[in-house]
Amino acid sequence: MQTNYQVARNSEVLVADSNKVLRNTYALLGLSMIPTVIGAFIGLSLDLTFVAQHPIMYVIGTLAVMFGLFYGIQANRNSGLGVVLLLALTLFMGVMLGPILQVALNLRNGAQLIGLAAGGTGIIFLTLAGIATTTKKDFSFMGKFLMVGIVMLIIASIANLFFQIPAFSLALSGVAVLLFSGFILYDVSRIVNGGETNYVMATLSIYLDVYNLFVNLLQILMAVLGDRD
Description:
- There is one protein chain.
- The N and C termini lie far apart (75 Å).
- The chain has one domain.
- The longest helix is centred in the first third of the chain and has 44 residues, at 2-45.
- It has helices spanning 2-45, 49-53, 55-75, 80-95, 98-105, 110-135, 143-163, 166-192, 199-225.
- It is globular and about 55 Å long.
- The protein is an all-alpha fold.
């Protein structure tokens, strides 16, 4: 009887800890949207012709900054500095939205498409996060498949920097939407089931899922519904 009580008690503690991590993650995720929006406005005001002229240099430079911030967040995940670096990353990611937002706003219905992409991202996130939270199903089995998928997506995206095939870009965006939707299920499930106990790292993972989901949804909407007249 004592053993059963201890098991039940440990289970209650695990659930309470998971709920706390999830609450802190959602709070920090909401906060991270503020510097993202500020960064997006900064990106819109910048002259980004360099991006079109030197796309490979742009990608290399942004990846260097991103991975530097990733390392800093990982190293300081248990301190307030980790939160500061995470917010700095979200500001930078907002600035990096500048090129695609500028392209979108050059369309007659660009503002509507941005709003539609944001709304679609929100609906997908809330639905999948709700499924992972309420069912408490362990989606860790998706991990290897998602990692293989993301590596192949990165390789294909780099290849398309040289070939610039519009139909291939659209196909890659479709695959990315599916992959990052899967990552939302996977990452929220890890928190719910105790696989991720640090809310800073949990927020980083889910933020990148949401960010990439939005970008790729917007690319699809611009290609399919963009009014260029």
